[in-house]
């Protein structure tokens, strides 16, 4: 069979474009409406997507004037969505910097049970001082320490997920023996960041471990991804950059002894779809027209770690910006924004327009065939194993993709017409992890 | 109208009796079956219960031989249950000792949004060294420190829940203003245990705050309950003890300036129901017969902080037990068990039988009328505002209560025939908290 595309639907309130909530069709209160998210998941499942995904951060991005801010805790949303879907994978962001491994390992194992093996965890380290200040700290821990903590966090979580052998439960009513104590193992981890005895307070879940997703593209982020990630969300503006990232990450994984097919690279794209190219462009223009520059300026200045007063809408970025080394926060996002502006000689106003759609992700604007062609080109030229689809407007942008682009890709033989597996791992072609504690098993990797 | 009863259904896997999983009717894998819990919630809602409740602990109670152990994370379970119910309240335990206020405040606010105002939080401090060892500690923090942390945790959580004014969202599409920054407030808490800047990353929820439930009956526990709790779960073996507890707690709340009607006292009872008294007693005997003494002995020794070898099945408890002062863990449970054994001169075997049903809660065994009479007696004599119903076997014990006891209490005019409110607070007759940050409001407490 032809190599197959994979699609994740990255869902957020009224869509990824910062103006989407201002369109007549949009519900500005969608961010706390569980029914909205249940309907979106059902649309994505109708399109046989591999998964849906919710980002999250343990802070309020302060300016609530700009767009819908804050919202529902994503793991709960997915537990709810699991009840109205049967196949689609369910991925949530959670931070390793402000959680304890025992609690998060439990949460994702629980979601995996509730969904029948459909849970995924996007591991983030959270790159802002504002978040740190919600968790007893004055300033952001440095980049390397956050990633070291994330790595240890994952090691502990994996052991907790393995702490029950798959056959630990006897359910022997006659003998009065529910479980076998010899098949439930302590973890006894003592490390730099954590001391965790275990075992976990829930049995091993259908997938063994939830799918591990990672999205940082800094050097530390890529190292973590190469070691642990099974799917990677990434923002790439050009085919050449996407190809370089793809081959870099696959090589890093291979160098660590991993099968490079077991790390799926999924660039984020913002499809803006119209029946004609003119209609698609009209929608994009309307969305860009609705951007309020004062909010966008503040946000851009924050990414660049400069004062908003240093930016002028109709001039290019200042020449003397900090270097990526000096950024302790979201390094890869910083570099992406600066290089986009420099490469295309954009004014600040133009840059804001480009970022408004997908916050640095590539926008594909056009007819269904044009969008399908762009996807096919990236997929066929070593830039992607699939895509993180980020509709500019929700639900209409997801519906347009499912109803007009997906059929074209199915016809080309590049995308499934129905689910063949039942777990998230099966959709992405990833193995169920062996249990490190199970004495009866050999590593089969 | 006659003063009305309130009922909470305390749900756990196959029921509260430790042998319930061994009955032919029981599914020993129910503890990870979300469908089981969704069905139970629907039964309780059919019975117009005020709420359902799930206990939890961030550790595995080690002996998995004894009964179904571990299970799904309760907040996720409730998020799922919310989708198949519309009125019943949804209460989950979460510990203040091993969580961060920002994360838990977000979780319960989120559940309150998802359920349309039906969330409640049973605040616990977690009384075991095993749990501490899952969170970077070697030993259990002392009782007073845990309760001090719980109080500060609640203060922070309440401020986070209030950090958005109720009218903070403008949703003004024309002006391009989603929220009003002046109505979203930082918390800037700096205390002994926590430093939390805020605001919360979700808007104020339908109930303002989730319902606060508390269950510790030690002195520290009662003080915390008197100050913060709006419903109290308690284990009382005799009417006299229940009356004393009821009037003590109402007085403590009153002394703190609270309306004593705004703290609901809900003793836990294990109803074992049969068409005839003989049938009810036969069910109870069958359950007790299925108890495996070796597990129960270990558990009892743990509660008493002694070695299992110090217990003999056919003798009474040893005379030289520690005093409650020496217990750093679950003080009130310790005292309840010891006083039950001493008061009734029980052998260890008899004590195990009595504890097997409801872990120290009162068992009411009999016909529907007898159970309804017992409930009415406690309710009418200053011992309870309602009851925490702990079916020995699930789902059958809950079904029996809803289908045979509830109709009698409705006929007596003591219990609602249909919901009159839509939020959990409305079911219990509790006010929606005013927002401490909202400058346009006066305290109406």
Automatic annotation (TrEMBL), chains A, B:
<feature type="binding site">
    <location>
        <position position="218"/>
    </location>
    <ligand>
        <name>FMN</name>
    </ligand>
</feature>
<feature type="binding site">
    <location>
        <position position="147"/>
    </location>
    <ligand>
        <name>FMN</name>
    </ligand>
</feature>
<feature type="binding site">
    <location>
        <position position="217"/>
    </location>
    <ligand>
        <name>FMN</name>
    </ligand>
</feature>
<dbReference type="InterPro" id="IPR036661">
    <property type="entry name" value="Luciferase-like_sf"/>
</dbReference>
<dbReference type="Pfam" id="PF00296">
    <property type="entry name" value="Bac_luciferase"/>
</dbReference>
<keyword id="KW-0288">FMN</keyword>
<dbReference type="GO" id="GO:0004497">
    <property type="term" value="F:monooxygenase activity"/>
</dbReference>
<protein>
    <submittedName>
        <fullName>LLM class flavin-dependent oxidoreductase</fullName>
    </submittedName>
</protein>
<keyword id="KW-0560">Oxidoreductase</keyword>
<dbReference type="InterPro" id="IPR051260">
    <property type="entry name" value="Diverse_substr_monoxygenases"/>
</dbReference>
<dbReference type="GO" id="GO:0016705">
    <property type="term" value="F:oxidoreductase activity, acting on paired donors, with incorporation or reduction of molecular oxygen"/>
</dbReference>
<feature type="binding site">
    <location>
        <position position="143"/>
    </location>
    <ligand>
        <name>FMN</name>
    </ligand>
</feature>
<keyword id="KW-0503">Monooxygenase</keyword>
<dbReference type="InterPro" id="IPR016215">
    <property type="entry name" value="NTA_MOA"/>
</dbReference>
<keyword id="KW-0285">Flavoprotein</keyword>
<comment type="similarity">
    <text>Belongs to the NtaA/SnaA/DszA monooxygenase family.</text>
</comment>
<feature type="binding site">
    <location>
        <position position="93"/>
    </location>
    <ligand>
        <name>FMN</name>
    </ligand>
</feature>
<feature type="binding site">
    <location>
        <position position="56"/>
    </location>
    <ligand>
        <name>FMN</name>
    </ligand>
</feature>
<feature type="domain" description="Luciferase-like">
    <location>
        <begin position="26"/>
        <end position="383"/>
    </location>
</feature>
<dbReference type="InterPro" id="IPR011251">
    <property type="entry name" value="Luciferase-like_dom"/>
</dbReference>
């Amino acid at each position: 069979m032809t190599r197959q595309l994979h699609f994740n639907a990255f869902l957020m309130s009224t869509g990824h474009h910062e103006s989407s909530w201002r369109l007549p069709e949009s519900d500005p209160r969608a961010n706390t409406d569980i029914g909205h998210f249940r309907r979106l998941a059902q649309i994505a499942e109708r399109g046989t997507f591999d998964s849906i995904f919710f980002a999250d951060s343990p802070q309020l991005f302060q300016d609530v004037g700009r767009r819908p801010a804050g919202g529902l805790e994503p793991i709960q949303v997915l537990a709810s969505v699991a009840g109205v879907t049967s196949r689609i994978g369910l991925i949530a962001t959670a931070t390793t910097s402000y959680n304890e491994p025992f609690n998060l390992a439990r949460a994702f194992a629980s979601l995996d049970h509730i969904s029948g093996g459909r849970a995924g965890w996007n591991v983030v380290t959270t790159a802002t001082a504002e978040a740190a200040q919600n968790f007893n700290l004055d300033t952001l821990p440095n980049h390397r320490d956050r990633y070291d903590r994330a790595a240890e966090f994952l090691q502990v979580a994996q052991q907790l997920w393995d702490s029950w052998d798959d056959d630990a439960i006897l359910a022997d009513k006659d003998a009065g023996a529910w479980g076998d104590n010899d098949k439930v193992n302590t973890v006894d981890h003592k490390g730099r960041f954590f001391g965790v005895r275990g075992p976990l307070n829930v049995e091993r879940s259908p997938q063994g471990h939830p799918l591990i997703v990672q999205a940082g593209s800094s050097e530390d982020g890529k190292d973590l991804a190469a070691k642990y990630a099974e799917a990677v969300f990434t923002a790439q503006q050009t085919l050449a950059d996407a190809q370089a990232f793809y081959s870099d990450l696959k090589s890093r994984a291979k160098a660590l002894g991993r099968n490079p097919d077991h790390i799926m690279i999924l660039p984020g794209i913002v499809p803006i779809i119209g029946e004609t190219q003119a209609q698609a462009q009209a929608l994009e223009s309307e969305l860009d027209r609705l951007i309020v520059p004062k909010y966008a300026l503040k946000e851009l200045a924050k990414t660049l770690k400069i004062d908003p007063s240093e930016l002028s809408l109709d001039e290019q970025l200042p020449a003397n910006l900090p270097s990526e080394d000096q950024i302790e926060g979201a390094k890869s996002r910083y570099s992406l924004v600066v290089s986009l502006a420099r490469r295309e000689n954009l004014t600040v106003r133009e840059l804001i327009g480009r970022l408004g759609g997908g916050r640095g992700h590539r926008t594909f604007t056009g007819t269904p065939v044009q969008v399908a062609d762009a996807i096919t080109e990236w997929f066929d030229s070593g830039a992607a194993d699939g895509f993180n689809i980020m509709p500019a407007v929700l639900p209409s942008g997801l519906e347009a993709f499912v109803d007009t682009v997906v059929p074209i890709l199915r016809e080309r033989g590049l995308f499934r017409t129905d689910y063949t597996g039942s777990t998230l791992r099966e959709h992405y072609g990833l193995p169920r992890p062996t249990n490190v504690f199970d004495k009866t098993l050999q590593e089969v990797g």
